[in-house]
Amino acid sequence: MSAEASVGSHAASSAQSGVSQPVCQNTGGHQSQGLLGSKYVKLNVGGSLHYTTVQTLSKEDSLLRSICNGGTEVAIDAEGWVVLERCGRHFGLVLNFLRDGSVPLPEDHRELEEILKEAQYYQVQGLAQHCLNAMQKQKDVFETVCRIPMITSAKEEQKMISTCRKPVVKLQNNRGNNKYSYTSNSDDNLLKNIELFDKLVLRFNGRVLFVKDVLGDEICCWSFYGEGRKIAEVCCTSIVYATEKKQTKVEFPEARIFEETLNILIYENNRGSGPGGLHLMDSSLGAGHSEEEGGAVGGDRRVRRIHVRRHIMHDERGHGQQTVYKD
């Protein structure tokens, strides 16, 4: 007797109901107590055809083993195919897991969820746990990935900053917002500011919210927020005079930017609230910096605005003539 005939003579029929115990309509008109008398099984899973053995299907205590030993009735068509009313896209992976005990899983999260659903339907607990472990590993990886929000409006930016419980570091970077030409080192310094932003994101990820604004009015400006308020600002651009024309100069005050980032950490977990936090912030502002600081009142607390000090050189023209800023 052929494998097909064996399958046809030993299969039973019923209707499919539920995830754990599907019942199918019998299309062949034959019933039996299972497939244990057969060695090979032909499976039609949603139009996807598979040829395997009863031994493979019986490796785990699953719905497929129940089908083989007669615990669950199935439908068999006129050609001897056991018909399972499921999508057959991932059934080959289910069979490979039963054969080998393990199987490589796709990285796509949606496909993992689909395979998990199939494993749960067929009650293949080993495969289901394998999928859950892979999904948990993906979740752990995603939680450590740096996320930088994209700001589409000033209102959205203000809302995000005011409601954020973490310190915020924002870099405004808009090279096109300039009506003068740039000095020779400005492009390099602009790139250095952007690279420093990326380094700070990697170093303080999880402790500080980093925002990059490429549509603002500033060419290159750092802003530091704590408890929803601006605490400090470092402006890296200035207008200088070269011969008879104005030029825009971009600086890279790396040390001061890094210092302000460290200062803003006192607002982590609301540690900057109260007079103690303010005293700590004030004490961190020591003398000897090469920047010029200007204070601006923000509510009842001032905002430190730092502009890079320029080296000034007088030209050889008469007294009172235009001052030249040396690049």
Automatic annotation (TrEMBL):
Residues 1-24 are annotated as: Disordered. Residues 39-139 form the BTB domain. GO terms for cellular component: Cul3-RING ubiquitin ligase complex. Pfam families: BTB_2. SUPFAM superfamilies: POZ domain (SSF54695). Gene3D superfamilies: Potassium Channel Kv1.1, Chain A. It comes from the Eukaryota. One of its GO terms (molecular function) is ubiquitin-protein transferase activity. Residues 11-24 have a biased composition (Polar residues). GO terms for biological process: negative regulation of Rho protein signal transduction; proteasome-mediated ubiquitin-dependent protein catabolic process; protein homooligomerization; protein ubiquitination. Belongs to the BACURD family. This is BTB/POZ domain-containing adapter for CUL3-mediated RhoA degradation protein 1-like.
